[in-house]
Design a protein that fits this description.
Blueprint: E1 3-7, E2 18-21, E3 43-44, H1 52-60, H2 64-78, H3 81-93, E4 99-103, H4 112-122, H5 133-137
Helix pairs in contact: 1-2, 3-4
């Protein structure tokens, strides 16, 4: 059992479980009926997305100091009681079921989901064994 951190809209990995979209807005131009079938998300949880103002900090971060300012502000938002309870809940669920959380950003290193991963880890989330593309492409024994 584990939580995976994913890019929304990417192909689902085996055992990924329910996809939770931790984004402020649904995907543009995609009908709600296609969110799950299009590999966006099964459940939308905008509470764990950065505020509009904080997203702007991330988008404008061109230096490590500016990125650190984004991280600090996002962590402050996630420390609010309702958000902190959600993070604790997801960390606990990761020890008993498979699911994934994600965002649209191409680069996880410059996305709130990298910080969300840290927050979940701090609460004891189980991330399981990382699955690489090479592992998925490796031939399987058929005996």
């Amino acid at each position: 059992m584990a939580v995976r951190i994913v890019r929304l809209g990417s192909p689902r990995l085996e055992g990924e479980g329910t996809r939770i979209g931790t984004v402020r807005r649904p995907p543009r131009g995609v009908p709600k009926s296609e969110f799950a079938s299009g590999n966006w998300y099964d459940v939308w949880l905008p509470n764990l997305a950065p505020s509009v103002e904080t997203v702007k900090l991330a988008q404008q971060a061109a230096t490590p100091a500016e990125w650190a300012a984004f991280v600090k502000r996002y962590r402050t938002e996630m420390a609010a009681p309702d958000n902190a309870h959600l993070i604790e809940l997801l960390a606990a669920l990761s020890r008993h079921s498979d699911f994934s959380v994600g965002c649209y950003c191409v680069d996880e290193a410059h996305c709130h989901r990298s910080v969300l991963r840290e927050l979940l880890a701090e609460k004891g989330a189980d991330f399981g064994t990382p699955v690489s593309a090479e592992t998925l492409a490796a031939p399987r024994c058929s005996s």
